[in-house]
Amino acid sequence: MKILAYLTSKKHPALLDNMLNLAAALSNMGHAVKLCDVNNNDEACGVFSSLLEDPNCFDMSVGFNGLGLEWNIAGNADVIHPYDALIFPHVSIMVDEPFNHYVSGYDLPCRNHIVTYIDRSDLNALDILYPDKEMKKLFMPLGGTLNENFSDPLSAPKEYDVVVSAGNWVAGTALPQWRQEVIKKSIVAILDDVADVMMNYPVSLLPAFQEVLYSRGMYDKEYLEIFAPYFWPVLQFIKPWRRNRMVQCLVEAGFKVHIFGGGWNQVPFHDALIDYGAVPYREMLDIISKTKVLVQDEAVFNDGAHDRVFTGMLNGAVVVSEYSSYLDELFEEGQDLFMFDWQHIKEQMEVIHQLISDEQYRTEIADNAYKKVIKSQTWGNRAERILETVDIFRQ
After folding, report:
1. Is the C-alpha dihedral spanning 342, 336, 168, 192 positive or negative?
2. Residue in 194, 3, 235, 280 with CA at minimum distance from that of residue 103
3. Of 274, 299, 337, 356, which has the most beta carbons under 10 Å away?
4. pTM above 0.70, yes or no
5. How far apart are alpha carbons 264 and 279 in whole angstroms?
6. What strand order describes the sheet that includes 60-64?
7. Sign of the C-alpha dihedral computed for residues 234, 236, 239 and 241 taken in this order
8. What is the DSSP string of 93-144?
9. Quick check: 9 and 67 in contact, CB under 8 A?
10. If we measure between CA atoms, which residue out of 140, 202, 340 comes closest to residue 211?
C-alpha cells in the first residue's frame, strides 16, 4: 500500500515520535510510507500538488488529531479541506478524549474518515457530541514506545526510585468552573455529584454522568446531550484534581518523587518533590528506562489506557497505575502491574516500598509485564489494527 503519514513537531510533545514509530512499523510491514511535515510549507505543497495531479496516488493516509484534514498553504488565503473530495480512507488517531478542547479533527470534512478513541466509553461520547458526522470508529489506545538506546530494557541501570511523568494543568485547588458561572441550580447540583463520583471512584467521565443521571431517573439520551457542554469543564477540574491527589499521596507516604512535567511549582507540596520540569519526549524514554516504579494516573481513561503504562512496561519499569477496567482485562494485578483507586490509594501504594527495596521481586513483575506488552501494545500492533480496519471499510 501507498500510505501518506502526516507529522508535526509542534503542539503535543509526543506527536512527532509516535508518528515516526507508527510510520516505521508500517514501512517494516512492506508498505510505502510518505511522510509529510504539515509545518514544512515546501513539503506540504509538494504533497498537495501530488494529490491534485492524482487523487488516487495514495491508498490511505493517517495523522494524529486533525493533522492532514485542514491545510494552510502559503500564498493561498483560504483554508483548504482536501478530504472533502478525496475518497481514500484517512485515519485520525486521537490522543485524548473527544470532549478535550485541545483535540480536534472530528468535525472536519472527510468523506472516508476512520477515528480512533482511547476509552471505550468514548464511543457513546462521540455519538452525543457529533451526531451528524459520518465516521467509522475504532477503539485503540496509543501504543507503547520502546527506547532503542537500551538493547535489554530490564538490564538498564535504575537511577530513579519513583517517577511521575505528567504535566500539571492547574494547582488543583481552584473551584470547579461551573461553580464560578451563573447557571441553573439543578445543573450545578448534578455537576457537583458527577465530580463527587469521580473524586471517589476510578470511573471515566461519561459513565460518571450516566450514574448520576440514572440515579435521578434520567435515562433518556437527551439528558446527556444537555450536559455535553459541561464534559470539558468537568474534565478540566477532575484531571488535575486526580493527578494532584496521586502525587500528594506519594509525598505523604514518604517517597521521594522524581516528577517530570510542567506546572508542579504551583502545588503546595512542591518542596517535597524533585521537580525537573518538562523534558523532551525522547529524553523521557531514557528516564523511564532508568526508573524502578512509574506511577501513572489514567487521565480519565478508566475504561481504556494511557500509553505511558505500556511505555513504562516496555522499558523495564514497574507500573503503578490508577485503576482501569481495560488494564484489568489485559494484565494480572500483582503479577504484571499494580493499580489504585481513590478510596484506598494510600494503602495500595504501600507496595511501592517493596518494589523499591526488593530488586528480585521488582524485576519479576517488570519481566512479566514486558513479555505481555511487547506482544500486543506496541506501535507495530497498532499498525496492524489500523490496516485491518482500513481494509474492512475499503470502498
Report:
1. negative
2. 235
3. 337
4. yes
5. 13
6. 32-37, 2-7, 60-64, 90-93, 113-117, 136-139
7. negative
8. E--S-TT-TT---TTS--SSEEEEESBTTHHHHHHHH-TT---EEEE-PPPB
9. no
10. 202
Q: In which residue are the cell numbers 507508527 written?
A: 22
Per-residue pLDDT of the chain (395 residues; tens, 9 = 90+): 999 999 988 867 788 999 999 999 999 999 999 999 988 888 888 998 999 899 999 999 999 999 999 988 766 668 889 999 999 999 999 999 999 999 989 999 999 999 999 999 999 999 999 999 999 999 999 999 999 888 888 889 999 999 999 999 765 456 798 988 889 999 999 999 999 999 999 999 999 999 999 999 999 999 999 999 999 999 999 999 999 999 999 999 999 999 999 999 989 999 999 999 999 999 999 999 999 999 999 999 999 999 999 999 999 999 999 999 999 999 999 999 999 999 999 999 999 999 999 999 999 999 999 999 999 999 999 999 999 999 998 87
For domain 2-142+379-393, the CATH superfamily is Glycogen Phosphorylase B; (3.40.50.2000)
Q: Which residue ranges make up each domain of the chain?
A: 2-142+379-393, 153-178+183-376
Cell, residue 314: 516496555
Determine the Cα–Cα distance for residues 295 and 23; give it in Å rounded to an integer.
29
d(CA 202, CA 200): 7
In this structure, is the dihedral angle defined by the CA atoms of residues 233, 62, 288 and 13, taken in order, positive or negative?
negative
CATH number of 153-178+183-376: 3.40.50.2000
Residue 250: strand, helix, or coil: helix
